[in-house]
Amino acid sequence: MRRVAVVSTGVIGASWAAHFLAHGLDVVATDPAPDAEERLRAEVATHWPVLERGGLADGASPQRLSFTADPAEAVADADFVQENGPEREDVKHALFAVIDAAARPEVVLASSSSGLLPSTIARGALEHPERVLVGHPFNPPHLIPLVEVVPGEKTAEESVETAMAFYAAVGKRPIRVRREVPGHIANRLQAALWQEAYSLVERGVATVADIDTAISQGPGLRWAVLGPFLNQHLSGGPGGIAHILEHLGPPTEKWWRDLRSVTLTPELVATLVAGVDDELDGVDSAELVTRRDAVLNALLAAKTGAGL
After folding, report:
1. Dihedral (CA of 181, 187, 190, 195) sign
2. Stretch 84-108: mean pLDDT, rounded?
3. DSSP letters along 241-305, please?
4. What are phi and psi of 151, to 5 degrees?
5. Distance between CA 171 and CA 147 in Å, rounded?
6. Residue 245 backbone phi and psi in degrees, to 5
7. What SS3 class is residue 103?
């Protein structure tokens, strides 16, 4: 594959475009916003230095980016389509009706949707729903390797295999989601953590900054290397995860029973926002993103060097 269409170029779409360009692909982008092309090129330029430090493919260049306001024109000659429109069924259906009619029949139409089911999205693709699936990245896609590939009820196995192979070829770590569920896998795991984090703030157990520190300076460091199951296994010594489940399973079940559901009331939202504002007092957000991305780049290089 040499040409990718990036449909809608907000934060996720722009990051995808930069990633594909860094891997030596031609990218044709489309977005209806009047200033979309200018914003996109500025975002790609912002991402390019960290991509250069991570290593570019032969021929990689921002000059291989083209733009059109017409989504049908954008996908007409594409070998793969990555859609990134708003998380609304009506918008997805209207968009997929256009790109399904315009793209070559064998071309996969992948949505970056973070929560919508691919079977729902595919209702807009009246001609070829079998080539519609979710290819959900993690933000920022130009750095984070994970892509969740989620087939829908009508998705052909060939489309799944094509998407898995394509993402792997451009440096991603795709996983196949075996059943459709709202939010897929990683977002559901995040949502579980957020629920308890918000609850702990609401109950006065910890501040926003305390919780960020608890994760970023604690389990988050291990999670960045290995997943929850392997970390549990290594924590169990010679007995591994079997030992952990036998000895820490019962108290863990008690903790589960004490976890609280939470409602995002206006008061709680205000508390969370104020907590983040306090945590970022005197910190330049743009500079924080730059430092975060530099650490992510170094971490990914270290993981690759260690065979992880």
Report:
1. negative
2. 97
3. HHHHHHHHHHHHHHHHHH-------HHHHHHHHHHHHHHTTT--HHHHHHHHHHHHHHHHHHHHH
4. -80, 155
5. 10
6. -65, -35
7. coil
Partners of 175 in the β-ladder? 148
The CATH number corresponding to 3-176 among 3.40.140.80, 3.40.190.10, 3.40.50.2300, 3.40.50.720 equals 3.40.50.720
pTM of the complete model beyond 0.85: yes
Q: What is the pLDDT of residue 125?
A: 96
Average pLDDT, the chain: 96
SS3 88: coil
pLDDT of residue 279: 96
**Domain spans of the chain, in order of start:** 3-176, 186-305
pLDDT band at 94 (very low <50, low <70, confident <90, very high): very high
Q: What is the token pair recorded at 63?
A: 């000059």
- Give the contacts of 98 (CB within 8 A, at least 6 positions apart): 71, 72
Rounded to whole angstroms, the Cα distance separating 211 from 208 reads 5
Least confident residue range of 127-131, 145-149, 303-307: 303-307
Classify domain 186-305 by CATH number: 1.10.1040.10
pLDDT in tens, 38-69: 999 999 999 999 999 989 999 999 999 999 99
Overall average pLDDT of the 127-142 stretch: 96
Residues of the chain above pLDDT 70, percent:
100
Closest C-alpha to 89, from 124, 62, 65: 124
